Amino acid sequence: MGRSQLICTGGSLIVTVQYSNDYKDDKNEALHTQYIFRTDVSHGGPAFHAAGTGSASSRNGDEVSANQSEIIFIGTGTSEGIPRVSCLTNPLKTCPVCSKAKEPGSRNRRLNTSILIRRTRPSGNCNLLVDVGKFFYHSALKWFPSYGIRTIDAVIITHSHADAIGGMDDLRDWTNNVQPSVPIYVASRDFEVMKKTHYYLVDKSSVVEGAAVSELQFNIIKEDPFIVHDLEIIPLPVWHGPGYRSLGFRFGSTCYISDASDIPEETYPLLHDCELLILDALRPDRSSSTHFGLPRALDEVRKIKPKRTLFTGMMHLMDHEVVNEGLLKLKETEGIDVQLSYDGLRVPVSLNLHNLIPEKLSDNNYPAWALNVRTALAANLLLGWIDGAEKPPPETAEKDGVMLPNPDYLPWMIVDT
């Protein structure tokens, strides 16, 4: 492989892996990968990420450097989408938001709620899609070519309504032309729904031979943290109407809750130290039985106290410019940073790979020297593996046609080289 170097600096350990002369870039220079271990990661102990160089400008939203992970809002609207056909065909033209939404480039034009996490890594970008609703094809047609997105490395499902799973059949374009299959991460209760709504994708025995249906790998998740392509994802259980459970997800310091009518008390600790909160906000005046309205969503922001909030899931009563103008005043009066998101918005985020050491650590229950020692141990595990140790077993294993967590998997030894 080559040489490995470990440097300790402050609260971090920097590991540089120098590849042998057999591996060179287009400038005939030896390749290297740099990993940075930190002990100040929220919801966990030592973690690492691959470092890189370079920068690029975003055409929408914040500045996004070329080596930085980002969240792309694939859709920010309700199940029926905006504009509504009924509003556009109404001879009285009483809906100003839908009238604006039909104009090219309008931020009032919204398709089914979904985000894509594009994580940078040495071997190339990793694209994790949250939800694949019934308008997914139209969203992908708009944003995938624009932002250079080709592969879908995983789909993570929040719940089993049509605006979250209705586009699963459209994944056939990827599995027939881009990649062999698409992993789906879904709770067991929602998988049971998929067995009925998309039975031919779950049980291929009913498919006519030669039919080009989506090739999907179903991975059953619980309400416990799980790993997807070295990224730790923490489920955020919420209620999406009386008795109906939906999941939000935490990625590093970003929390995503797209469909919620209530947040259980046991979920709030998982939202601690949230830097970016993406939260459901259906309408400007009140909540519905299944979704937060803007007043309730703002109350949740005041309780959770994120550094920044972007609302999603807006219906046609939420005028992007009008509502955002009002929300700007809250930064002056209350010091809270809240805005409506929009389809195509790009936001840079910091995504650390999952903990190399399984125990959860924090400055509250471990002294600084202990954190540094455990970080050093994690770094040595990484160095040992890179320099020729046996590769860990796969994260998942197939059982009865379903991909389940592999009990032999050692999650703290996975490294993306």
From TrEMBL:
<protein>
    <recommendedName>
        <fullName>Metallo-beta-lactamase domain-containing protein</fullName>
    </recommendedName>
</protein>
<dbReference type="InterPro" id="IPR001279">
    <property type="entry name" value="Metallo-B-lactamas"/>
</dbReference>
<dbReference type="InterPro" id="IPR036866">
    <property type="entry name" value="RibonucZ/Hydroxyglut_hydro"/>
</dbReference>
<dbReference type="Pfam" id="PF12706">
    <property type="entry name" value="Lactamase_B_2"/>
</dbReference>
<feature type="domain" description="Metallo-beta-lactamase">
    <location>
        <begin position="111"/>
        <end position="314"/>
    </location>
</feature>
